[in-house]
Fold this protein.
Amino acid sequence: MPDAPGRERPVARHGRLPRRRGWTTALSVVASAAAVVLVSGACVSAIGVAQLAAAPRTVALSTDDQSTAQAADITAIEGGANILLIGSDTRVGQFDSDEDVEGARNDVTMLVHVSEDHEQLTAVSFPRDLMVPIPACTNPETGTTYPAADSAQFNTALGNGGVSCVVDTVENLTGLTVPYAGLITFNGVIEMSNALGGVDVCVATPIDDSFTGLHLSAGAHSLQGSDALAFLRSRHGVGDGSDLARISSQQVFLSALLRQVTADGTLSKPVTLYKLAGAALSNMTLSDGLARPRTLVGLASTLRGMSTSSMLFVQYPVVDDPADSARVVVDEANAHTLNVALQTDERTSLADSSTGRASRGSSDAATSSPSATPPQSAGSGSGSGPTPSDTASPSGDGATPGARTTTTSSPSATPLPSSISGQSAAEETCSVGN
């Protein structure tokens, strides 16, 4: 419900709770590594299969999902293929270790839908602080059974029952069948960015985050290693400091990464491809169905040649939880629209949508100089990069700093509701500092 005129609505700081452990949130979008594997078709088919044969870590999903994966050809699944990518700082198989069990959380969860005609990829990010029903799950290591919950924080599903529990939760939430899944650790992001020699990202206004140690001036930066991970982790340093802001900043990084991989000849460099595949696969635990060589080769073939304008990143629609300002709940109407579009494999666009709480179009982040400025290293807090003008600012209700500046719609694409934020990988966007 809109606020009364003149009344300022407080910004919910989703996820700003006491930190349970230093690395619990370290993996903000470690799924970026998996995203590159999905796009780098030649990488997966030529190199990934050989690496899988070495020592793959696998995990079983539910009986129904396993049966679907075994019976299906990922290149010809009716209604398209669904793959769930999970980022966590604790690998499956370590639930009974000496580490804090609460660290086994799906802090990054991304559902990737590849259309049946192989013309579009939609990656849906689920906020970690989303309150959702979680089915009864059994921890695969300890055997502990957790009863079903009508409302629980989304990122507790992994600790309850491993990858399979996260998959079941997403299936219940979206109405989709998800026969493939992968869990990736933070090392994947570090190694992937190193293999690329850095990912070039745009910063609209300075980012200063003492929690991650990330300090970036406005302008262009080439990020790799721990700096790339800090950028993906940063919540307090971007937008309104919420987990929702972090998701949109992560989309800036992912889109830049995919543009870089597909546009600069990376896919034609065997050494780089080998490093990319090794970085991703060596840091992933795959579901039994996804770990099969023919599945990865098939997945690669469906994505080879896909335009970045047809790769959409969206945030699952949510609103503030009236019971807890640090949490969010499903925006039922808009979530239904998105769910149905995925279920029916409908080609969609984000032409009328906004870019998110902590990102804006590159033309909105206009530079003070018309000349191009090379990317800076991450450590330069006062570098010589362009300084975008602060032409827009976040509103109190969490609206985005600016609307998109390019459109990715086609005559056959149906625009998603404008309240569903996101961007295509082709769009050049900038992260907005807090």
